[in-house]
Each structure stands twice: as C-alpha cells, then as structure tokens.
Design brief:
262 residues, nine-stranded mixed sheet, 9 helices, globular
Length: 262
C-alpha cells in the first residue's frame, strides 16, 4: 500500500504533488471531489457530512492552493493521483462523492477502483457525450457570456459569487481554478469519449443527484447518465442549479446521508 502522508492539517502530499485539503469529522472516510471550485473550510455541506464521516476534501492540482507539476495536464493525471490517495488511506473501503467536474472524476475512479469503494454519489456530473455531434450536451462555460453562464448555473442567480465583493486573494484563487479547469477539460470539452462504454462496470451502490434548475447539464442528461450505471438511483435536488452543495447544502447532504445510511 502506498503511504499517503498528512503533514499538516491543511496539506496532503502524494509523490511530488502537495494538495490543499479540508479534513473534518471522524469515522469512516468520505472522499469529496469538488467541481469548478474547491469548497472552503467553513462550507455548510462539508460540515453536515462530517457529522457522520471523516470528510477529506482536497483541492485538485492547480486549484486553490494545490500544486500542479508541469507535466500534470489531463484528466488521467487526476484519476491516477486520486487512486493513489485512496490506496494510501487506512480504510478498507471509502465512500466517494463528487460534484460537477469532480463527479466526472469520481465516475472514472469507480470504474477501476471499486474494490476500495462502498458507495458512490455523483452530483450534476460532467464527463459524457450523449447527443449527436451537433448537440451541446454541456454548456461551453469558457465561450459563453458570463451572464448567461451565471443564469444557467444557478436556481437563484443572486446566490452566484459577486466578483466586486471578492478579495484580491479570492479573485486570484478563482482565476487559478478557472485556468486549471480549462487545462483539464478543454479538449474534448468536459467529456471522455470512452466513459460511456465503461460506466456499466460500476458495481457499487450509486446515487446520482441533480439540481432541478441545472442549465449547464440538464436533469435529462442526468437521468441518462444514471441509466448507464447498473442499479443507480436518480433523484432531483429542488431549488438548485448546477451547484446544489452551495445552493441547497442541507437538502443535498440530507439525501446523501439517507442513501449512505442503508
């Protein structure tokens, strides 16, 4: 087993990659993989999950304050990194939860690492091309006006981050996250053409959750995603867009904890 070294309360070293990490709670480990931006230490969603689990929430390499080696530049680098992280944990099996971009990573990991997983939760996942060549399954967040992206991302757009109110440090982190996201997801845009074929390998109990107002990847996309995973359950999160962990943390955590209770 590879040794994963937690050197400080907020850092996790895996080979030459130093990950910023939020760790909360005790008990069995729940690994949370974030979407477009890492969640902060005070995130309500993580606090609710930590009441029953040891929550480990790293920032992906290049996001937040996590380092990114120069040759670390595609989705498979992230997948291999997190598989090594999981192999280094003392738990026989862990729960894996991902949102958005992180849910795509979680699905890829579950295909090949399910012997270390007991449950899988995917929230507003990316990663699939389901329509024809001319159909835009996933809104192009890099080439669409920011106002449109904001409206399509949130049930209540007034909940979206206000850049005018953000500190210089927060703006720098936001820009770094965006750069890293474009590096990993630019081409092909936010999907793996081989993922659809292999989702059927996932054999752990799986819950797929979706914000009712998600306009980046619609609930219909989510239903089709869930149908490709044997036995997966699909459910909606009311009053949420693409970011239920931010818009409806209590409702989202409640649905996840209920699923994990059985």
């Amino acid at each position: 087993m590879t040794e994963t070294l937690l050197t400080r309360a907020d850092r996790l070293n895996i080979r030459d990659v130093e990950l910023e990490v939020v760790q909360r709670g005790t008990g069995r480990t729940l690994l949370f993989l974030h979407g477009f931006h890492p969640l902060g230490t005070d995130a309500r969603f993580l606090e609710l999950l930590s009441r029953r689990f040891n929550v480990l929430a790293p920032s992906h390499p290049g996001f937040g304050a996590s380092s990114r080696p120069p040759d670390f530049e595609n989705i498979y680098d992230l997948i291999h990194l997190y598989r090594e992280l999981i192999d280094g944990l003392p738990d026989e099996k862990i729960t894996l939860v991902g949102t958005s971009f992180g849910a795509w990573l979680a699905a890829e990991i579950a295909i090949n690492c399910q012997h270390r997983l007991d449950r899988l939760v995917l929230v507003d996942a990316l990663g699939l091309k389901l329509g024809d060549r001319e159909t835009q399954d996933i809104l192009d967040i890099f080439n669409t006006h920011p106002d449109v992206v904001r409206q399509r991302s949130w049930h209540d757009a007034s909940r979206a981050p206000d850049f005018n109110e953000m500190s210089d440090e927060a703006l720098t982190r936001h820009a770094r996250d965006w750069d890293a996201l474009s590096l990993y997801g630019w081409e092909p845009y936010m999907y793996n053409p081989r993922l659809k074929r292999w989702l059927g390998r996932i054999a752990v109990p799986t819950l797929v959750l979706w914000g009712t107002s998600d306009g980046l990847v619609t609930p219909d996309y989510g239903r089709r995603y869930a149908a490709l995973i044997p036995g997966a359950r699909f459910a909606l999160v009311e009053g949420a867009g693409h970011h239920p962990d931010l818009e409806q943390p209590e409702a989202l955590a409640g649905q996840i904890l209920e699923f994990l209770r059985h």
